[in-house]
Amino acid sequence: MGNVLELQGMSMSFGGLKAVDNLSFSVRENEILSIIGPNGSGKTTTFNVISGLYEPDSGDILLQGESVAGLRPDQVHERGISRTFQSLRLFGNMTVLDNVLVGMHTRTKAGVVAAMLRLPSVRREEAAAKAKAQEVLAMFPGRFSGPRQSDPAFSLSYANRRRLEIARALASEPALLLLDEPVAGMNPMESREVMEQIKELRSRGYTILMIEHDMKVVEGVSDRVIAMDHGVKIAEGSYQEVATNHLVVEAYLGKRGAGTAS
Amino acid sequence: MSLDHIVTVTIGGLTVGMIYALVALGYTMVYGVLEFINFAHGEVFTVGGYVAAFTLFALGVSDQMSTVAIIGSLLLALVLSMAVPAALGLLVERVAYRPLRGRSRIMPLLSAIGVSIVLQQLIIIVFGPTPITMPTLGISSASVSILGARIRVLALVIITVSVVLMAGLTYLVKATRIGKAMRATSQDMEAAEMMGIETNQTIAFTFVVGSALAGIGGLLVIMYYGSLKFDAGFLYGLKAFTAAVLGGIGNIPGAVVGALVLGLTETYGVSMDLGFLAWFVVAGLLMGLYVQLVLAPKKRLQHISDDRRTPGYERSIANIYRLAPYLAVRTLVVERTDALRSVSARHAVRLMLGNLFLVVTAAVLFANGSSRIDTRWQPVIAFVVLMVILMFRPSGILGKHITEKV
Amino acid sequence: MAREMRLSARKALAIMLLVALVVASMSLAGCKKDEGTTVSDDETAGKTETIKIGVETALTGPLPDYGYAAQVGCELAVEDFSGFTIGDTTYEIELVVLDDKAEPTEAAIVAQTMVDEGVVGVIGGLTTGATLAAMPIYAENRIPQISGSVTGPKANETDFDTFYRTCWNDGVQGEALSVWAQELGAKKVVLMDDNGAYAVGLADVTENSLKAAGVETLRQNCQSGDKDLSAQVANIKEFGADVVIFTGYHPEAGLLRKQMVEAGMSDVQFMGGDGIKSAEFVAEAGGNANAEGCYATFGGFPEAQQPGYTAFAAKYLEKTGDEVGPYAQNNYDALGALVAAIKKAGSTDTEKIIEALQTLEYEGVTGTFTFASATSGAVTRGDIVVTGLTPANVPRYVVKDGAWIAVE
Questions:
Q1: Whole-angstrom distance between the N-terminal and C-terminal Cα of chain B?
Q2: Domain assignment present for C79
Q3: Which of A20, B349, B398, C79: CA 20 to 30 A from B307?
Q4: Does residue A70 share a domain with residue A35?
Q5: Is C156:C375 a contact under the CB 8 Å cutoff?
Q6: Which domain covers residue C133, as residue numbers?
Q7: For residue A3, what are the domain limits?
Q8: DSSP state letter for C327
Q9: Is the CB of B180 less than 8 angstroms away from the CB of A103?
């Protein structure tokens, strides 16, 4: 199995504050790698650097052996990294279907003139894109069926908005999917459902890098786990290895009191 | 007041409104994407008109030419008066706005005002300060008779062309790939970027489309009025901007509606007797009554938790709105302990006073039915109408409440 | 890092642009200084001194053609009158031409600039509204002002002794328009202005005169810069006017005429004041066919009665290759009269020049004239009084084959 993503000594600081310090890890093909760590440990910053929002101060990011460090977010997306957001960032006034279609932006190419003239090639592409979008939405059975697809995204329930974000990220068939706290704010039943769906994504061949606070979910889906604290990787291995690592336990104890990480 | 007078003035108002709309779309699209007012947009409009007139002069267009040649020349002028402003819009965005993006909000605004001044001076330098005039053509003065009114063919052309362009724009924004990218960018630029949309390109495209529409506006104006001055963009820009705000800035159909309201207000205000205008007040009154008697009680009830919504309670809310004058006073004075009730009551009284105002206005207008507003009051009236609309709909006629933007 | 580099490159570019701008503006300022006022001693012919005369005109704004003609008039006058002598001193004239855009706010700034420049007198302004704003500043700083084109009757209601004009006052012109409309058989007249001081003043005078003569009138107006006058045209049509008098300037006048013709009202007589008598009017009205037969009065004098007109027109043609622009000769005379007053005063002290102007009799292109010393009737203080001409001599013009020609 080759490495889909490889971080090599990546550092990122904001005005002297090191948010991520010399971070190295790799994500293997078709695995689910989870990053855990207390708030402010640099997890989301790592995601933002990987998706091109910030340029790393030093170090390199390789996607399937090619550097993506310093590319614009849209270029990173085109190379095959797609993501969801901790705080939902759907396009609220657009319909469910349109949100997914936007996710396919880099996979379609109809030009303006061609689109205005409704050339046959454009019509074919549109039909294909729509079919593909519906296929992605169908991964969440019963959630986005029929007329719901033309509802504006803001009218959806919270859990459905989280699901739609995943669907939007999947639309481009990314080589690597970044999930930022996919079950945040969900009730236990909903998280279990999302957990199953994440596992299903792995069985469909997706490679997933995930940030999650819910240890049940981390335990349930992760092939491997990385723990971070103060921008530094403090542990790596199977869930059991990481959860029992004394540095990890300390980091959580120091931050949030006892018991959370066990 | 005769029917042909009404038809003439209405078509005149629609024509003016459509031209405002073509310019207003550029303001509203750019605002939608960047939340910034492109003050140089009016000058882009002027350039469109100048390019059209200059092209027709360079080709030596006159009625002596064959019909095919005239149509060809007009098409060439149309293409150029879209292409040159589009290129200009692109250039302005690249040079004056993009380098300042992500900084404080005031900087691009100042830059826009600067660009507007520079462009105006450039027009003076290139074309001189005297107005540019259009070669006189038969088609620009041809007219038809509609319901006894003599209407210029060109006015109908302007209305048709604008409607087609706006339909095209709606299709572009709603259904095409780039349109979806534009909408996504306007809602969350960063998220759009991370979903693979090249936002710089999308913004540039927005400027191109807006500028091309303004350019066509310039062409239509010079065809219709025959002349254009270097500073015409200022007035048109101001009015189009007003129209965009009136319709709800950032909202594309809103810009069109706002522009038509503005255009009709201007012409009706000058040329209709008060008895005719009173019917608009009556229409407003009917809407106001609908709000007071049906919409407002319903909305009020939505804010109330289910356990308090007994049938009796619902009835009393409805009564407050229906019998506002008596019940509101009683609620306010006698039963003032019930805070929620008095909120409704105050709301009801406000609505009632609004409707009462409309009744009085309509009565005054009908009483002076045959007289007309002194044209000197026209700007004042237009301003008052604008203020009243924005008072009732702070985010514009079709503007969405900010909370809905997510 | 790359972003920082991009940023610094941008900064470097900005600094370079700034430096270029500063250098450019300094070199321009330098040029100006070289030409500036110098007093040089010439041993053979005594002293040579340069005096500054201001020209407040409107080169942009709504009337660039009028503004240009005024400037040319003044330049021609400088060519003819510069280098006059008082005693053993030769005076060279340097013009300070400033653009007030025909806007009151700009005019106040221009007037202050003139004061700062230390001009001995000002020719202008061009338009009534702008001049009203500039006059108090000139009066306060005791700078004489002679306008060749401000016809507004309100222009000297304030009775400044610094204001003079070499064109008719609109009190006279409005009367003339009213008389002419009645001669054309007007029964129902629409008067339309552009809300500016000049247009409202002229329309008021004309309307009052028409009403006094029992003619039915309707007043309309627009804003300067308006393009669409369809509502006003519809009103005119409904009123059933036989004569329309537009008292503003030619851009709106042209549009009004054009939209009237397009609304099928080409048989309604169209008249205007001096603000529409411009070659631009014909183009703005949509060509010869639309403009044919439109009438205008003027604030100057009939060309045939101007003794120096033919010679002046030749000079004007030589300089610009054009026919004489509106009020060019009035501006020429204004500058000539100012020079004459300086000579008469024997000094460049502005107080003495003002005193000299009040009693000056000057023989110019437009005739031999003096300035009224007090307000009486339609004539206000500082108005031109031409020997041998009465208000009845207000010239009349009509468009024929695309050009304004005098009506006999």
A1: 49
A2: yes
A3: B349
A4: yes
A5: yes
A6: 43-168+305-388
A7: 1-80+174-262
A8: T
A9: no
How would residue B404 be classed by pLDDT, with cut points 50, 70 and 90? very low
CB contact under 8 A, B183 and A83: no
Q: C3 to chain A: which residues are within 8 Å by CB?
A: 55
Assess whether A180 and A151 both reside in one domain. Answer: no
Chain A residue closest to C3 (CA)? A55
- pLDDT tens readout for residues C138-164: 999 999 999 999 988 877 778 888 999
C318 and C379 housed in the same domain: yes
Asked if residue C176 and residue C231 are part of one domain, the reply reads yes
Structure tokens at B133: 């005039």
Instruction: Please report residues of B whose CB lies closer than 8 A to that of C286.
Output: 136, 140-141, 226
**Complex ipTM > 0.85:** yes
Distances (CA, A) of C218 to B16, B281, C171, C211, C297: 24, 27, 20, 10, 20
Distance from CA of A49 to the nearest CA of C (A): 14
Residue to mutate among B3, B98, B227, B370, with most C CBs inside 10 A, is B227
In this structure, the answer to whether residues C175 and C246 fall within a common structural domain is: yes
Q: Report the CATH number that the domain containing residue A241 is assigned in CATH.
A: 3.40.50.300
* Shared-domain flag, residues A107 and A57: no
Token output for A39: 């708030």
The pair of three-digit structure tokens given for residue C317, joined into one six-digit string: 């043609």
Q: Is the dihedral of CA A191, A197, A200, A202 positive or negative?
A: negative
Q: Could you tell me the two tokens for B368? A: 């002076």
Q: In this structure, what CATH number is given to the domain that contains residue C379?
A: 3.40.50.2300
For residue A87, tell me if it sits in a domain. Answer: no
- Is the domain of A153 the same as that of A178? no
Cis peptide before C125 (omega within 30 of 0): yes
- The H or E element containing residue A101 is helix A96-103
Please tell me the predicted confidence (pLDDT) of residue B141.
Answer: 76
Contacts of A106 (CB under 8 A, 6+ apart): A74, A77, A78, A172, B196
| Domain endpoint, select from A132, A148, A173 | A173
Q: For B187-227, write each residue's pLDDT tens digit.
A: 999 999 999 999 999 999 999 999 999 999 999 999 998 88
Quickly count: other Cβ atoms within 10 Å of residue B303's Cβ: 9
Window 258-317 of C, Cβ < 8 Å to B: 258-259, 261-264, 280, 283-287, 289-290
Chain C within 8 Å of A57 (Cβ-Cβ)?
yes
C273 & C345 share domain: no
Per-residue pLDDT, B150:
86
Write down which residue in A173, A197, A231 finishes a domain. A173
Residue matched to tokens 């095959």 = A80
